[in-house]
Amino acid sequence: MKIFNSHTKQKEEFKPIKDNDVKIYVCGPTVYDDAHLGHARSSISFDLLRRTLEKNAYNVTFVKNFTDIDDKIINKMNQTGKSLKEITEFYINSYLNDMEKLNVKRADIEPKATESLDAIFELIQTLKDKGYTYEIDGDIYFDTSKDNEYCELSHKCQENTESRVCNFGKKNPADFALWKACKGEDDVCFNSPFGKGRPGWHIECSAMIKKHIAYDKEYQIDIHGGGADLFFPHHENEEAQSHCAYSNHLAKYWMHNGFVNINGEKMSKSLGNSFFVKDALKVYDGEILRYYLMQTHYRDGFNFSEEDLLVSKKRLDKIYRLKKRIYRLTKFNQDKEFETKLLESMSDDLNISKALAVIDEFISNANEALDNNPKDKVLKQKINSNIKYISELLGVGGKDAYEYFQIGIDEDTKQKIEELISKRNEAKKAKNYEEADKIREEILNLGVKIQDTPTATLWEKI
After folding, report:
1. DSSP SS3 for 177
2. 30: helix, coil or strand?
3. Which of 45, 155, 360, 363 would give a disulfide with 298, using CB separation of 3.0 to 4.6 Å?
4. Do residues 97 and 281 lie in contact, with contact meaning Cβ atoms separated by under 8 Å?
5. How many other CB atoms are there within 10 angstroms of residue 2's CB atom?
6. What CATH topology corresponds to 2-262?
7. Rounded to whole angstroms, what are the CA distances from 155 to 9, 11, 229, 236?
8. Dist CA 408 CA 422 (whole Å)
């Protein structure tokens, strides 16, 4: 398997630190608001990575944190009058619910900053003892000038540090807070060996990695991932803290997904064009949204457009139309050639374009083969096996074929359709074919079409 390492800016052969075990840490959300499409894109990208590694027979330990103490959360508390716990628990549950609808697998470990304070204290104390810190009015800062390797990870310091805010008293613009002392009654504070206060943002991830999954080797973990906007300064600062404290590097491979844009503009809360996942899910099924968001390679920028989403859905429809042709088939016959081609595509730095081309070719060939041999059981079993493999690797294609084509029909209408189908079946049983035809027309006027099969009458949205 090959992945693009953001550190070396090269595609590299993936070699785990230990045997077939893979430890991945992905930066999760700061839980003060609902998840937006940027969160969804990142989650889907690293979900594809995880699934691809697992299909390559690696034992994956996947960690995604929740930042549950932050200035934005405190601002939300002041705006709403709610407690830290009320706000963070609500948005954690909201995030997990959205990701479940996008068929993103839950992380094996989901640490929170507020539950990792002991690990944070230990890391800060280690940095203090080694002389990498200084204090200003109770705040503890990391002194980047003491780290000879600072900016070796991202190589972005020169282009970024000049424009960064330099707090009064800081030695260097790039220096960052490890611990923030309480500033007033409205501040959220925790007891610590350094006085009352709260952790800085960057220290949290380093401490949680060390606490939950770190090796005591040249590298602590195999892969560290997140959005491209986190590479500097967040990941740079994580790396600095970790190697200065423990004399080893944080991650062997660094992976970053591209930004999401809406109408060509970078998605940003400050620009007022953030698109919440929950709003998209009101209009589009989670699998349709997932398929659309994963069609662009994870490292590329993504321009969200509803027109493109509808085009994407038509491509996903083809999987389910093929699935309809083998409806309710329960037997499988492994097609190793197809599985190898698909997995090899994804194993090339998650080459989704190549993978989808493999699927398109499979669908085309399968439909042609079914046209020529509609009763070929082995063929149907191979098709069934391949669709199952697609679902396991890419997280799409796992729904009931007819239920997929009922997406967009509300529950009241579904109930009415089922009642009309029942009445039509009764009319047919009574050989009242004129009444049965009238009911079929009534069903058609509801925007659906029906198909009679030997076992049941099935329907789908037109």
Report:
1. strand
2. strand
3. 45
4. no
5. 14
6. Rossmann fold (3.40.50)
7. 11, 17, 14, 9
8. 22
Q: What share of the chain is helix, strand, coil (3-state, %, to 5)?
A: 50, 20, 35
Q: For domain 325-405, which architecture applies?
A: Up-down Bundle (1.20)
CB contact at 8 A, 458 and 442:
no
Max intra-chain CA distance, the chain: 91
Report which of 205, 198, 233 is spatially closest to residue 74, judged by C-alpha positions.
198
Sequence-ordered list of residues with C-beta below 8 angstroms from that of 457, at least 6 positions apart, any chain = 421, 424, 425, 450, 451
Helices (H), 142-198: 157-160
Sheet holding 265-266, edge to edge: 265-266, 260-262, 302-304
Angle at 259 between CA 255 and CA 263, to 5 degrees: 160
Of 330, 412, 396, 405, give the one whose Cα is nearest residue 359: 396
Query: Per-residue confidence of the chain (462 residues) as pLDDT tens digits?
Result: 999 999 999 999 999 999 999 999 999 999 999 999 999 999 999 999 999 999 999 999 999 999 999 999 999 999 999 999 999 999 999 999 999 999 999 999 999 999 999 999 999 999 999 999 999 999 999 999 999 999 999 998 754 444 344 556 889 999 999 999 998 877 899 999 999 999 999 999 999 999 999 999 999 999 999 999 999 999 999 999 999 999 999 999 999 999 998 877 776 665 566 689 998 898 899 999 999 999 999 999 999 988 899 999 999 999 999 999 999 899 999 999 999 999 999 999 999 999 999 999 999 999 999 999 999 999 999 999 999 999 999 999 999 999 999 988 888 999 999 999 999 999 999 999 999 999 999 999 988 888 887 778 888 887
Beta partners for residue 103, in sequence order: none
Q: Which residue has the tokens 């900053």?
A: 113
53-87: b (≥16 Cβ within 10 Å) or e: bbbbebebbbbbbbbbbbeebbebbeeeeeeeeeb
Domain ranges for the chain: 2-262, 325-405, 411-461
User: CB atoms < 10 A from the CB of 265, how many?
Assistant: 10
3-35 confidence digits (pLDDT tens): 999 999 999 999 999 999 999 999 999 999 999
Contact, 52 vs 350, CB < 8 A?
yes
> CA–CA separation, 250 vs 153, rounded Å?
10
* Rg (alpha carbons) of the chain, rounded to whole number: 26
